[in-house]
Amino acid sequence: MTDGQTAGPRILVFAGSVKKTSINARLADSAQNALTELGAAVTRVSLADYDMPLVNEDLKNNEGIPDAAMDLGRVVAAHDGVFIASPEYNASIPPLVKNTVDWISLIREIDGQAAKPWQGRYVALGAASNGKLGGIRSLYQLRAVMMAVGCQVITEQCAVGGASDALGADGTIADERTMALLGRTCKSLVDHCKRHALSV
Questions:
Q1: Measured by CB atoms within 10 angstroms of the end CB, which terminus of the chain is less buried, N or C?
Q2: pLDDT tens for residues 139-156?
Q3: What is the CATH number of domain 2-194?
C-alpha cells in the first residue's frame, strides 16, 4: 500500500484484478496519476494483499469478519472517496470485486466503534477492456451494488475500449479521448469529496 502525501481529499484507488499484466491495473495507475495532479491524497492498494474467502454467513457467525476484510475496511473508512477500476467478466462484475465489496459491507464495528466502511463514501467507477465497449456493461451492475452498500456513486465514469493501446504500461494515457474521459471522472470525484468536506 502506498499513501499519498499531498493535502486534499483522501482517495483510495484499487483495481479489481490481481493479474500481473492487468489493463485495469493500468487504468488504476492512470487514475492515481490524475487524482494526484488534482491535489488528492491518494492511497493505492492491491487486492492481492487482502486475500478473503468467499462470503459465507456461517463463517461470519462462527469466526467473525476475516482479518483481511477488516484491514481493508479500515482503509476504506479512512478515505473520503474511492476509485475502482474493474474488469468485466461475462458482462458482469468480477467475483474478486463482488466478494471484496460484500465482505466489507458486513462490517458493523471497527476497533470498538460502530462503523459501516462504505457508508457515505464517494465512488468513481472505471473499466478497461480490449473490446469496443470497454467493460461498460459491468459498470451498470457495479454502480447498483455500490449504491446498495451505501456509497454515493458519481455520475461520471470511465470505460476504456482498446485498452492495451490506450493505456500505457506506466500509467500514461496515449489516447486523448481516454485522457479526457478519465480526467472528467477524477475531477468530479475530487469535487464531490471537497464539497462534502465543506458541508460537514
A1: C
A2: 999 999 999 999 999 999
A3: 3.40.50.360
